[in-house]
Amino acid sequence: MPKIFLAEDDYTMLSLLRTLLKLEGYTTTAPLDTEDVLEAVHREQPDVILMDVHLTQGNGIDILRAIRQDHRLDSTLVLMQSGMNLETECLAAGANGFLLKPYMPDALIGRLKQFFAA
Asked: How far apart are alpha carbons 20 and 18 in whole angstroms?
């Protein structure tokens, strides 16, 4: 069962994502409120990171760059999301995909299925 790491600081969105992904058969995990995202990713070893660009823990694009510089995480897929169209910036920083908020649940599930079909 694939594990999805949810780097999202909006609790309503986090709850909705957990419910949706559980219904689709995915396991989810998320960092603690004060936890460093990169440290939590190392601990959890997820298959995919679903990360918002704007986090209270820092800028998601900066965190993405740190993930891409860490060779222990080379096989970890990163799907970025934001309410602003930052797709070009996210892909340039090493994201495997981008979703513009708000998006329909099918868009997220479809993207995850593409990741795991490859």
From this structure: 6
pLDDT digits (tens, 9 = 90+) for 38-50: 999 999 999 999 9
39 half-sphere exposure, CB direction, 13 A CA radius: 7
Cα three-residue angle 98-74-2, rounded to 5 degrees: 65
Q: List CB contacts of 104: < 8 A, sequence separation 6 or more.
A: none
- Find how far residue 23's CA is from the centre of its chain: 18
pTM: 0.95
pLDDT band of residue 28 (cuts 50, 70, 90) is very high
Structural domains of the chain sorted by starting position, each given as residue range(s) with its CATH number in brackets:
3-101 (3.40.50.2300)
